[in-house]
Amino acid sequence: MEKVNKNVDISKMDQEQYNYEPFADTEEYRKVNTDCIHSWVEIMRRKGVSGIEALLDVATGAGTMVQIVFDNLPDSWKTAAVMCLDQSSEALKLAHSRLEKTVDRLKMVHSSIEDMTIPDQSVDIAVWGNGIHYLSKDDQLDSIKRIKKALKPGGLLFFNTAFYEEARPADTLPFYRTQVKNAVHYLRERGVKRQKSDVKTEAAKFLPKSYYEDLVEQAGFKLVEASEFTLEMHREAWEYISAFQQYAAGALRGYPISEAIEAMRGSVEPALEQHGRPDRDGELFIPRKWLAISAEA
To answer: Which of 23, 73, 87, 229 has its CA 20 to 30 A from that of 30?
Structure first.
């Protein structure tokens, strides 16, 4: 019989105001983004960048990407002004409280990327952490064009995503299938009804690497680099990802979202027990790839 772990400790997750933020605070998220940012700093060095006057952080959330960027910038670059863009005013308050001691010149911009109206040619660098996949293709292209207008000539855009076609190596697919199978069994046992739905969430569409390479060029950028990083993701990280509304809705289309989240989260541990690989400490993980795109305006 398929299993769902009913004893998942969700108290920490349920106390979080934003269900996408706990994952951003995990060791895995910080590690993969640190690896990405190291590569981005090296690209800046190769491009002859010797300092940054202004940095834009798109969909800043709690400001985790800015924290990691500043942790990895050369000391002489840390005088940059930072604009944090987010459509949630409460997320911006949280980001401000986390960043005000790290960033001397900090500006919070309350807006979605689709409605962004910051001045043309006003930033040197734009960073967008693991968020582009939430938008439709049209909105992605429009957003990248808006970022290009905000960048100075020769400015750089860096973004990454863990939701693209090649993110799930073929030998890891049994983990995902088992998680979904267990989650569906759990919901059916409880009499939760599924409504017919043919609509996929944007994050569930998993566009290929080549799409994102073409996307930046369609928006008028020059593609500098498209790199992939492999991350060992453990139970806690998978439980947090399973709490993303779009992740759960994409995996369990047609089921009520709160029940889908509960079922997906509780199905992580049994699926890991069946398909996970032990790390050096014996903790089970499933690898997932992240795509990092670098482009020049």
So the answer is: 87
Residues 86-94 have a mean pLDDT of 92
pLDDT value of residue 200: 60
User: What gap in Å lies between CA 18 and CA 229, rounded to an integer?
Assistant: 26
pLDDT value at residue 288: 97
The string of pLDDT tens digits covering residues 202-216 is 556 789 999 999 999
CA distances 121 to 56, 87, 125, Å, are: 12, 22, 10
The structural architecture, per CATH, of the domain 11-296 is: 3-Layer(aba) Sandwich (3.40)
Indicate the burial class of 288 (C-beta count within 10 angstroms; 0-12, 13-18, 19 or more).
Answer: buried
Q: What's the Rg (C-alpha) of the chain?
A: 19
Whether 287 shows a pLDDT value over 90: the answer reads yes
* Residue 88, CA atoms < 13 Å, CB-side half-sphere: 17
- Predicted pLDDT of residue 224: 98
Q: What is the DSSP string of 206-219?
A: ---HHHHHHHHHHT
CA dist 168 and 173 (Å) reads 7
- What pTM was computed for the model? 0.89
Name the amino acid, one letter, at 192: V
Residues 6+ apart with CB under 8 A from 45: none
